[in-house]
Design goal:
This protein is mostly beta strands. It has helices at about 1-15, 15-25, and strands at about 35-40, 50-60, 70, 75-80, 90-95, 100-110, 110-115, 155-160, 170-175, 185-190, 195-205, 210-220, 230-240, 245-255, 260-270, 275-285. It folds into two domains: about 1-115, Immunoglobulin-like (Sandwich); about 155-285, Jelly Rolls (Sandwich), CATH 2.60.120.260. A five-stranded antiparallel β-sheet has the order 8-9-16-11-14, with no helix packed on it. The longest helix has 13 residues, at about 1-15. Bound molecules: calcium ion.
């Protein structure tokens, strides 16, 4: 297949218009063959994953029953299928791992068709600061719940492959709250400096349904958050404007005068259970 493509490159590079004309009138009768194309995609090709798409070819008739398809680049493979019930050319484009978009012009049935593929999204390093595994690259460890020290809602915490930055190499945590009483929560204990202002927050993506995210930070006097009482309680609501869209929330808090650690808590709070919310890039940082 690659050799065939390379041969086609040479043909097209020499005289693309001429080669298309020669093929269009290969029959003996002097017919004028006029084709038109209808790609089945309507925008740029996405950068991620392999895209397989069709270009419908119209204008084929008994006298104009043969045409071919050419690509001049290795990353866009095109195959002609004039014998299909609906004649079409099939285009296969692999993922673009470069950050710049790329464009080429295919020739299908003598008609030029420009194809543009998006560049890979630039993934800026998430600033999770002191939080361990705030990016949820492959799992949700060490997020947990210290039952039975505090009541927790009913629900579940699972790793999700949906990443806030669109990275195929990372994911997020999906919190599902299934009862009316308490929000369903996960937490971790993070060592901090006392009397210090921090910023905390996350990116969240809500589901259809009625609910919101809640994030809380509590100061503790022990380094492992094991003492009974906490102080300096900060509780913030993360309510995305629309379901299915990542939105970043950021807040400020100050640790207590004796704080050695804080509990960082993320939660799904259903107004009408169940409610699902994804968290990613959960962070706690000094400004
Ligand atoms: Ca992530």
């Amino acid at each position: 297949m690659k050799q065939l493509v390379l041969a086609l490159i040479a043909t097209v590079a020499l005289a693309p218009a001429a080669s298309a004309r020669v093929r269009a009138v290969h029959r003996s009768a002097p017919h004028q063959c006029t084709f038109s194309l209808a790609p089945t995609w309507n925008a740029t090709i996405p950068s991620a994953g392999v895209t397989r798409a069709a270009v419908l070819v119209f204008g084929q008739s008994q006298d104009c029953a043969s045409w071919e398809a050419y690509s001049s680049v290795e990353w866009a493979v095109v195959e002609a299928a004039p014998l299909d019930a609906q004649p079409a050319a099939y285009v296969t484009i692999p993922a673009n791992d470069q950050t710049t978009p790329r464009t080429t012009t295919l020739i299908v049935a003598g008609v030029r068709l420009q194809v543009t593929q998006d560049g890979a999204s630039t993934v800026s390093p998430p600033r999770t600061g002191l939080v361990v595994n705030g990016t949820f690259d492959t799992n949700i460890v060490p997020w947990t719940w210290q039952s039975p020290r505090f009541p927790n809602g009913r629900g579940s915490a699972n790793w999700s492959s949906i990443d806030a930055n669109g990275s195929p190499a990372s994911g997020s945590i999906l919190l599902r709250d299934t009862d009316f009483d308490h929000p369903f929560q996960q937490l971790q204990c993070v060592p901090v400096t006392r009397n210090t202002t921090y910023r905390y927050g996350a990116r969240v993506r809500g589901s259809e349904g009625s609910g919101e995210g809640v994030m809380a930070v509590f100061s503790y006097q022990s380094t492992d958050c094991s003492d009974t009482n906490f102080s300096n309680q900060f509780v913030s609501v993360l309510r995305p404007d629309q379901p299915g869209v990542w939105q970043e929330f950021s807040f400020s808090m100050t640790t207590s005068s004796k704080a050695q650690a804080v509990l960082v808590i993320i939660a799904s709070a259903a107004t009408l259970p169940p409610y699902e919310i994804w968290y990613d890039d959960v962070f706690l940082t000094k400004p």
